[in-house]
Design brief:
Layout (H helix, E strand, L loop, with lengths): L6 H39 L6 E6 L2 E6 L7 E12 L2 E7 L6 E3 L7 E11 L17 E8 L5 E5 L5 E3 L6 H9 L1
Antiparallel strand pairs: 1-2, 2-6, 3-4, 3-5, 3-7, 4-6, 7-8, 8-9
């Protein structure tokens, strides 16, 4: 006749399984809460970055600061007309070659860059530079530092991307401490 397990031994096994299950659930909840907080923080960090927009106004590209805080630095990186006659065209800016840097931009303020004639990308001379037409689609990429000191890059109205500073090299750290 088979032996009947003792109730205490059976109960210990069930208790151990229950404890392991509780630990797994607690770890899952902690990880998901941590992930939610991290996403909430990333969303809060990007709040000002989403308020910086670029638009075309006649023959100019205008970057607007719609936020309640100043931009500490703005840099216009690229401006192109997408695929005109099978080629990408780049402008000759009234301010000189890209990138174009601006200083502090106050809340609610805007900066603009006059767009000159466009030539094929990679060429400096062009027999008949194309003038900007109202139907041309301009793509612009710009980088900026928000009021929290976070660097961002944005192309048109896409979601801004946070730019992480690379870890400083040993030489840069030593140069900092020598100052």
């Amino acid at each position: 006749m088979p032996e009947v397990p003792e109730l205490a031994t059976w109960w210990d096994k069930v208790s151990a399984i229950g404890t392991a299950g509780a630990v797994i659930v607690a770890l899952f909840l902690a990880v998901s809460e941590s992930r939610r907080r991290r996403l909430d923080q990333a969303d809060a960090d990007a709040a000002q970055a989403r308020m910086i927009t670029a638009r075309r106004k006649s023959l100019s590209l205008v970057v607007d600061n719609h936020s309640l805080y100043p931009l500490l630095e703005l840099e216009l990186i690229t401006v192109v007309i997408e695929e005109v006659e099978g080629r990408r065209l780049v402008p000759h800016l009234g301010t000189g070659p890209l990138p174009v840097a601006f200083g502090v931009i106050a809340p609610g303020a805007a900066v603009s860059v006059t767009l000159g004639p466009f030539t094929p990308e990679g060429e400096t001379e062009y027999d008949a530079p194309k003038q900007l037409l109202p139907t041309d689609r301009i793509r612009s990429t710009y980088r900026f530092t928000d009021a929290q000191g976070i660097r961002w890059e944005r192309t048109d109205l896409q979601q801004p991307k946070r730019l992480l500073d690379p870890t400083p090299s040993l030489l840069n750290r030593l140069a900092f401490w020598r100052r």
